[in-house]
């Protein structure tokens, strides 16, 4: 990734969030079971929320969103660290969908950590720190869902 300035970084991140939302929305339409469809649509909405935050950052309208945000340490159980990248195919199992989403969150977290390291202002750092925390929360949630599901299956 070779960026000339912070706007380039933010534009890149916005595109990544759009891509993720479109991905989840698109594959939700290929699933037959309503539970999996709904889960994928919820993932898409989380990505759209991040997209809006980044668009607000670029427009200089971050203020109140950040003022009320509570930062806290999110545990990383590193489940996705031991999972290969997963390619989507219609009808894939629930555990496979969770693995796919875990890896995507892991990659997004890595991206935002890089962006945090390159942020220029305190406001930008706070936004990227918040995005890191949000991705870490999603990753932990998915990894916990995966562990719970696998435990129910006897693994």
UniProtKB/TrEMBL annotation:
SUPFAM superfamilies reported in the protein's UniProt record: Ferritin-like (SSF47240)
Pfam family, one: Rubrerythrin
Alphabetized PANTHER family for the sequence: BLR7895 PROTEIN (PTHR33531:SF10), RUBRERYTHRIN SUBFAMILY (PTHR33531)
Full protein name: Ferritin family protein
Domain spans labelled Rubrerythrin diiron-binding: 8-145
Annotated signal peptide: none
Molecular function GO labels: metal ion binding; oxidoreductase activity
Species for this entry: Desulfatitalea alkaliphila
